[in-house]
Amino acid sequence: MNTLGKTLTCRAAIAWAKNSPLSIEEVQVEPPKSGEVRIKMISSGICGSDDHVLKGELVVNFPLIPGHEGAGIVESVGDGVCSMKPGDKVLILIIPQCRECDACLHPKGNFCYKQDVLPCSGVMLDGTSRFSCRGQKIYHSFRTSSFTEYTVVPEIAAVKIDDAAPMDKVCLISCGFPTGYGGAVNSAKVTPGSTCVVFGLGGVGSAIVMGCKASGASRIIGVDINEEKFPRARALGVTDCLNPNKLEKPVQEVVMEMTGVGVDFAFEAIGLVDTMVAAWNSCNNSYGVCLIAGLAPSDAQLSLEAPKILSGKTLKGVCLGDYKTRDCIPQIVTDYLQNKINIDPLVTYQLPFNQLHEALELFHSGKAIRCVLLF
User: Quick one: 188-317 is in which CATH superfamily?
Assistant: First the structure.
């Protein structure tokens, strides 16, 4: 059937309001406008940022279709699109790369000004939505919305990848893997023989561990309140596991005692102010580097002891591993295909889209590093 230029009807998960169960509905997906692409989704990971959206911890507009970590095949393209064509395999990108704004043009910048995360408008670049259900407009999530059989994204928020890519797994390279692995390898530049601590051993935290190990870290301390994650974390490279709820002292004090001087690199992959402060206070006061990869609630404020900043340690935020997404993500896929990196251990469950609620239960239970939905 020729679908070009036509509105499609497909299944999608809709959050009608914050803290409401996702409802799988029939939605109408309009054709792409100028500078946009419509994508048939093949797989989507469930990321912690999606959970923040559903809980209303980020400022978003409801009703919306969540999801942002996705892989699919281009169904059609709008006017002016030249970097991909129908039939191409692509990853969608929560952080686009317009290649025009200050962030994109700066050698070290990657937080494109045309992103729709902070804040999230829920609409495309022209201010309108491509989704509707029961005659009502449905908002996009981060201009990606991967919990749907078809989605529409700006061309700058998608990138063509190798035709050989296994589409049931590479969705992780859309967000979680580069955020974590890149945070260690590209942003922090973890050094051989260094000591590291990782707060949060979910999908992003596990990828951070992989990056620390690949960089030659001699000691990797993993911190999580769910001890079911510890065996997998050890298999990925964690040398010591800590459950803050079972410690007699604050976790940062324990880390300081374990290392004597604090860690060289601390990573926060949860998005909570308390763990951000704990990560900061776990660092060596003179040269430690603390990287924040977790997305905090919109109204959260971070408070640190100001005098200790003077000692020389560094606090840095990192998004998508500091990678310029359209330039760098395809190479990560190629590295995976060439066995230079291995994302397979991060995919702990794969479930069909109609088992979305079971997948969310696995996510909330902590039994999954990444649960991937298959369409």
Answer: NAD(P)-binding Rossmann-like Domain (3.40.50.720)
**367: pLDDT confidence band, cut at 50, 70 and 90?**
confident
User: Which residue in 52, 112, 194, 290 is the catalytic one?
Assistant: 52
Q: Determine whether 47 is an active site residue.
A: yes
Q: Domain limits of the chain?
A: 8-176+322-374, 188-317
pLDDT of residue 308: 84
3-state secondary structure the chain: CCCCCCCEEEEEEEECCCCCCCEEEEEEECCCCCCEEEEEEEEEECCHHHHHHHCCCCCCCCCEECCCEEEEEEEEECCCCCCCCCCCEEEECCCCCCCCCHHHHCCCCCCCCCCCCCCCCCCCCCCCCCEEECCEEEEECCCCCCCECEEEEEHHHEEECCCCCCCCCHHHHHCHHHHHHHHHHHHHCCCCCCEEEEECCCHHHHHHHHHHHHCCCCEEEEECCCHHHHHHHHHHCCCEEECHHHCCCCHHHHHHHHHCCCECEEEECCCCHHHHHHHHHCECCCCCEEEECCCCCCCCCCCCCHHHHCCCCEEEECCHHHCCHHHHHHHHHHHHHCCCCCCHHHEEEEEEHHHHHHHHHHHHHCCCCEEEEEC
pLDDT at 247 over 90: yes
Q: Is 106 a catalytic residue?
A: no
In the residue annotation, 68 being an active-site residue is answered as: yes
Same fold: 8-176+322-374 with 188-317: no
What would the mean pLDDT of 176-201 be, rounded to a whole number? Answer: 98
Q: Which of 47, 212, 290, 371 is catalytic?
A: 47
364 catalytic? Reply is no
Looking at residue 241, what is its pLDDT? 98
8-176+322-374: CATH topology? Quinone Oxidoreductase; Chain A, domain 1 (3.90.180)
Query: Mean pLDDT of all residues in the chain?
Result: 96
**Cut 0.90: pTM above it:** yes
